[in-house]
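FW: tagging you since you asked about this chain on Friday. Here's the raw sequence from the shared folder, copied in full. Didn't touch anything.
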Amino acid sequence: MDYQKLAERLLPGEYPSPEFYEEKYPPRNLPEKAEVTRLAPSPTGFIHLGNLFAAIANERVAHRNGGVLYLRIEDTDLKRKVDGAVEAVIRALKYFDITFDEGAEIGGNDAYAPWYQRQRAEIYRTFVKKLIAEGRAYPCFCTEEELSALREEQTAKKEITGYYGKYAKCRNLSEEEIYKNLDEGKPFVIRLKSLGDPKNKITFRDAIKGEITVTENDQDVVILKSDGIPTYHFAHAIDDHFMRTTLVIRGEEWLASLPIHLELFDALGFRRPRYGHNCSLMKQDGETRRKLSKRKDPELSLEFYRKEGYYPRAVKVYMLTLLNSNFEEWYQKNPDADLAEFPFKVEKMGKSGTLFDLDKLNDISKNELSKLTERQMADFLRGWAEEFGTEAQRAYFKEEEKLLAALTLCMGIGGKKRRKDFKTASQAMEFLSYFFAAPESYDESGLDLKTRKTIAEEFLAVYSYEDDAAAWFSKVRSIAEKYGFATDMKEYKLSPESYKGSVADVAEVLRIATTGKANTPDLWTIQHILGEKETRSRLKNAVSAWEKA
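HL: got it, structure written out here
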């Protein structure tokens, strides 16, 4: 068969030579040991924790020795494309401080652009035409109905599904049959003519998992679809070569496609990049572990962390804890260090499924937020509120002095020990709400409504904004003593049956009357932040509510 003639018939016209692209996209001029890595999502609008997991690893590897991290958009499947998806990817990763050096909607080194695969169609066709001319690719005229019937037959026979061996019926079409189909205008795709034998095994050195053994590829995969756009498999091989990618860190779900990718690089005559397949993120579900699921687990989506208001550094700290086995020990010794200083190593990445624990992330988030100043915390909360907060929450920032005072109290700033009450922006804003709005409901107390009402009335009668903390507490003690509550906690513990309760119960009633909550930081300070007018108003509201209840 005249393969050169067939190549011209299938892809007519002049295309730049392979050598042209080798010159156009030369090897990058980078320092020794520098790596070129990439993130290459599809524009589906859903970016998940696994993307961030890989992005952090790729970013750390690239920037460890002066390398490059770029963003490529794999938009070969128009059916899955969602408007605004690329911007969503960039926005989500920027939130977590992932810095790209170049890429889609980012710019950078235009020498390796464009970064959208659909804009690189001519490059792919050059190499498809080359493979056809070499007898390594051929047209396939099978319809969707025929391919579906083929899969059903293979499934019924319990055989591997796919287009291979005896099932690759277009592989051995005669020249006459091919041209007859073309003359009749039958649509076609281009398939790779695989030379692999499933009886043969390949030992492959994975950058993360070490030596692994895979079966040679024998699938005649589609490399160019009927619309002239390549499949992911083919496009990624071309792009990784000409963007001069040196290391591909991706999810272990891609291990199944590895034999195809290895054969494609060999067929194209390209040097293979190194591949590292990172472990899947798992979740404890009862007695078993399973992969995080888009359908079952909202925490898989990165949008979840932005909407909840997780502190970006906290998420990154936790991801690095999962990514490198020695990070946690390093971070304990360097708790305030720039995370870029950590000597990240691909070899330290986990080889099997990693358990993702939201409770552990919450603990890390509380710890990281507790390190902030009140001003830094206010700025973080403002950024979240502007995008996700309610109108009432955004109004908190109009009372900046009150907000900063509330944060100073609630974070324990200036005290002996920092409080760790805040885990996310959304939770913190809810926590702070009683500083800006009178309670609409009240937590329960161990005391009856009549006693609660009496305590609030008594305190309202003697309350003075001018009292210092000692004078304030003295009045609380007097009320406690008057109504049969123990004023000495040691005495109360020795003989609780002798009292209606303790002074702590009296203080709790006043706390609930002021904030609606049974547990808050120091009540005297809260009332001082609220001011005399607001404090009196809230005590009166509580008296009225308990009277009507």
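FW: DSSP finds 23 helices and 15 strands in the chain.
HL: agreed, and Residues 3-15+121-278 form a domain with the Rossmann fold fold (CATH 3.40.50.620).
FW: great, closing this out.
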